[in-house]
Specification:
The structure holds two protein chains of two kinds.
Chain A lengths: L7 H5 L1 H6 L7 H54 L3 E4 L10 E2 L1 E5 L5 E7 L4 E7 L7 E2 L5 E2 L3 E7 L5 E8 L2 E8 L4
Antiparallel strand pairs in A: 1-3, 2-8, 3-4, 4-5, 5-6, 5-7, 8-9, 9-10
Chain B lengths: L1 H14 L6 H61 L6 E8 L2 E12 L5 E11 L2 E11 L10 E9 L8 H27 L2 H9 L13 H10 L3
Antiparallel strand pairs in B: 1-2, 2-3, 3-4, 4-5
Helix pairs in contact in B: 4-5
The chains are: A alpha+beta, B alpha+beta.
């Protein structure tokens, strides 16, 4: 089998011209090498892009989880020092029920409502003054990207509140106990 | 001729890897560079998958730990008062497991029933996360045997990086909490100043101004508000 001379020096060298052989790879070797290289490259490339899309999914889920946690955290901060839960409350027969909004009297005695807006998939906060003044809805939402929200009050005196949030395949369940009377 | 070729082959490809010709070195170099360019992004990508998740989880875990430790610290303060320990108590770098917290029991005077009044402050800082709890505590007589009756109320918390051992910070926190307590007085006075009918009427007038999502619930909420009016 004839050998291909790779470099210019090889072509021009008297040895190469004379014998047309010695150094370098044959065409078949090159083709096989390229095939193996491209096969490995293809497999690795495919795996790389698969991993990238997988990573993207993980990041999206992490973001959703983080949004859920942050939103819960914000609501818990205010609920923990709240005075009383106004709605939803434990039913007269002691059964519980959930709602996608919660009304409570905050530390200062004003009425606060966290409510779910299904059209925009977000939770908003509305402050209703327990006195003269109009209700004010916060400009920035508590959190966004939710598909389901549920608040549940439990315990005697409705002092234990469960918060369930779901969105983008992630969900979070937190509970908070009201410390103030 | 065949023998000669075989000899050459073995000499070039097998026996002397470090005495490659120029073209072989070039090919080897290309292969090494190719492998490196494949491996580096892979390693980088894998490290990113791990770190982003871990960072998020760690951050939130720190947040929760700071809060939990601060609450445990508040319970420790509560227990100290129940155990009949009296007077100013400034306890720094107390441990719950491996986490540190500060506890400050600051006497503020004597109550109507001769009970000792305290500001109970607890603070925990983990990483970048701060959690401070402030509450009022009343430590009742009669002495001497613990546990004595202790009532805590008006819990207030903040995630701002206050130091409970620095007087200026404590005053600042008291001011913020004081503002909210003043507002509490206002809301209570408002409720007391009106009859149930007047209160219901005033609060019902807000219905039209509520967002549409919560407006239907308002009558039910209003019933509770009126029934629990001061």
């Amino acid at each position: 089998m004839e050998r291909i001379c790779f470099t210019r020096r090889m072509y021009t060298s008297p040895q190469c011209k004379k014998k047309r052989k010695t150094y370098g790879f044959t065409l078949v070797e090159l083709i096989v090498g390229l095939c193996i290289f491209s096969l490995i490259g293809g497999i690795v490339g495919h795996w790389f892009f698969m991993q990238r899309s997988y990573q993207q999914k993980i990041l999206e889920k992490s973001d959703a989880q983080q949004r859920i946690r942050r939103s819960c955290w914000k609501m818990i901060q205010e609920l923990r020092t709240a005075r009383t839960i106004l709605s939803p409350r434990v039913n007269p027969d002691n059964s519980i029920h959930s709602d996608d909004k919660i009304f409570f009297k905050n530390f200062s005695g004003d009425i606060v409502c966290f409510y779910f807006v299904p059209k925009e998939n977000l939770i908003r906060r509305c402050l209703i003054p327990n006195g003269p003044g109009s209700p004010v809805v916060d400009k920035n939402p508590i959190g966004e990207g939710f598909s389901q929200v549920a608040f549940t009050a439990q315990d005697i005196g409705n002092r234990l509140v469960g918060i369930y949030l779901e969105g983008n395949g992630a969900f979070g369940l937190e509970s908070v106990y009201l410390m103030n009377e | 001729m065949l023998e000669l070729n075989m000899k050459e082959k073995s000499r070039n490809y097998i026996c002397r890897p470090f005495s490659m010709s120029g073209s072989q070195k070039g090919v080897a170099l290309v292969m090494v560079i190719g492998l490196v360019t494949l491996v580096i992004p892979l390693v980088f990508m894998l490290s990113q998958i791990g770190s982003s998740d871990v960072k998020l989880a760690k951050k939130f875990h720190e947040n929760l730990r700071a809060e939990s430790v601060a609450f445990s610290g508040a319970n420790a303060g509560f227990s100290r008062l129940k155990g009949n320990l009296r007077g100013y108590q400034d306890l720094q770098n107390q441990l719950i497991g491996i986490e540190k917290y500060d506890l400050n029991l600051r006497p503020t005077g004597e109550g109507f029933f001769k009970q000792n009044l305290y500001y109970m402050l607890t603070n925990c800082k983990i990483g970048q996360h701060n959690y401070t709890i402030m509450a009022e505590a009343e430590q009742f007589h009669p002495e001497p045997d613990p546990p004595v009756l202790v009532i805590t109320h008006d819990y207030w918390n903040t995630v701002e990086p206050y130091e409970i051992n620095i007087m200026a910070d404590v005053l600042s926190m008291q001011n913020y909490r004081g503002l909210e307590l003043l507002r509490l007085d206002e809301t209570r006075d408002y409720e007391k100043s009106l009859t149930s009918t007047e209160y219901e009427k005033e609060m019902n007038a807000k219905k039209a101004l509520l967002p549409t999502e919560i407006e239907p619930e308002w009558p039910k909420v209003l019933n509770f508000l009126v029934s629990e009016k001061l």
